[in-house]
Amino acid sequence: MNQKPDRIIIFDTTLRDGEQSPGATLNVDEKLLIAKQLARLGVDIIEAGFAVASPGDFEAVNRIAQTVGTEDGPTICSLARAVKKDIQTAASALKPAAKPRIHTFIATSDIHLQYKLKKTRSEVLAIAEEMVAYAKSFVDDIEFSPEDAGRSDPEFLYQVLERAIAAGATTVNIPDTVGYTTPAEFGAIIKGIKDNVPNIDKAIISVHGHNDLGLAVANFLEAVKNGARQLECTINGIGERAGNAALEELVMALHVRRQYYNPFLGRPTDSEAPLTNIDTQQIYKTSRLVSNLTGMLVQPNKAIVGANAFAHESGIHQDGVLKNKLTYEIMDAQLIGLNNNQIVLGKLSGRHAFGARLKELGIELSEGDLNKAFVRFKEVADKKKEISDWDLEAIVNDEIQQAPDLFRVELVQVSCGSNACPTATVTLRTPEGQELTDAAIGTGPVDAVYKAINRVVNVPNQLIEFSVQSVTAGIDAIGEVTIRLKYGDRIFSGHSANTDIIVASAQAYINALNRLYAALKKQEEAGKAEGNTSAAASV
Question: 208-258 pLDDT, tens per residue?
Fold first, then answer.
């Protein structure tokens, strides 16, 4: 295998490492939706999950492999510990994929060996070699990661990598698992591997890094200069703790500064050829989808996809941009799929025109989802004179990522003011079809609505996050509400968009409560099944 391809391979782990962000749990349908968009984005490899982790993860990997892992689609990957059961399960989940990859790993730092694995270096060497070879018996494309490579002894790291490649690893991934290294150090690790692993030319060097010190993207770019050719990243940089290297930042850095990076990939400095296969115009849309489905908002000053990334308030900046965008913008907002186009659709527009515009935006819906989204579109069109593409995306995202339809908001009515006591009345339809009404007072209208809902649903929870964002400018803008609830050690998110913020707040809260309620019911049913099994066994 050529160790130095003239482009950078993008390995997206949003659905695996990204989903490990607290509160970012996705169901199978949501994962499939994101996987389809990642394919449109043009990522080379989708790490669809950790198949052995749960039946839900297995199903997600399997369905993504079947639906997205086509001949002309991306490689579909499943993570697996260096354990036979993990590898068997990953291989089984990946069977439908045209291009399957098993990604197996074992820790190599002394601190992990001593306290987590309780194994010697020689034992880890043997396990790595044996399990890579075992994985190779199922699929040809094997990735091996020495976990916590950033804190591993270099000489031992070289030995592990050499044995893994000899056993059949086609990609060796170097993880900065705890986000500890600096760019110079990380670059030196990659260079050391290239110089000291005898068979490194038979594998692609990949990198994976966390952002604990805010250096993940910088570390990766330094790794590219030293020979890394695969970057493992997530949309919006989501992931455990402070997150992962952000895909959009890496891709746009390589795009905007391609003349700087060209020589490191063996290209002429003045080459305009893209350094990745990413369709940059899908970046913003993908960012929005992941943000909405995970309930993790993008900070306004986030590079590339933040609300302020292309905004200019300073008079000097505004004057310069009006004269020539290049004075203060190093890339065009349209390059990532941002535009200010207004669609020529209104309350008299038909379903066909609505569906056609969605297709133009790259949004593909089933017949059922299209019908639901069209009903919402009509509701919004009655309230707004002009509907932007951003409004359309908000409407669609709100419809396609609804929580289980258990409790449903039928009525929300509030009374508040400067000298009034905020009061809310809500009517909910229960899972059994009953309509229940209750009222409550609160510190504000939203607090009153949530207290009234709690009186009806009666599921204890702790509201830990409430945020509102405007989709577009103007007094009639659609507002998006995202909330997160905590129950025990689990977090459930809810999201809704509406021109009425109070209604959106109620719907977002119900979405989260429905997820919590469904999880409790599932847990209760599992407990009953286990009890029945035990009773049968004792007979």
Answer: 999 999 999 999 999 999 999 999 999 999 999 999 999 999 999 999 999
CA atoms within 13 A on the CB side of 17: 29
β-sheet with 490-498: strand ranges across: 462-470, 479-487, 490-498
Residue by residue, DSSP assigns 338-396 as ----B-S--TT--HHHHHHHHHHTT----HHHHHHHHHHHHHHHTT-S--BHHHHHHHH
**Count of beta carbons in the 10 Å neighbourhood of residue 523:** 10
Torsion of CA 216, 218, 222, 223, to 10 degrees: 20
- 259 touches 220 (CB < 8 A): no
Cβ proximity of 197 and 203 under 8 Å: no
* 210 annotated binding-site participant: yes
Is 62 marked as a binding-site residue?
Answer: no
365/360 Cα distance (integer angstroms): 12
In DSSP terms, 493 is beta-bridged to: 484
17 appears as a binding residue in the annotation: yes
Residue 1: pLDDT band with limits 50, 70, 90: very low
Asked if residues 409 and 428 have their Cβ atoms less than 8 Å apart, the reply is yes
Distance in angstroms (rounded) separating the CA atoms of residues 99 and 65:
9
Strand order in the sheet with 435-441: 408-415, 423-429, 435-441
What span, in angstroms and rounded, lies between the C-alpha atoms of 513 and 494? 8
pTM, full prediction: 0.81
**Is 382 within any annotated ligand binding site?**
no
Instruction: Give the Cα separation of 166 and 199 in Å (integer).
Output: 8
The CB density around residue 54, as the number of other CB atoms within 10 Å, is 11
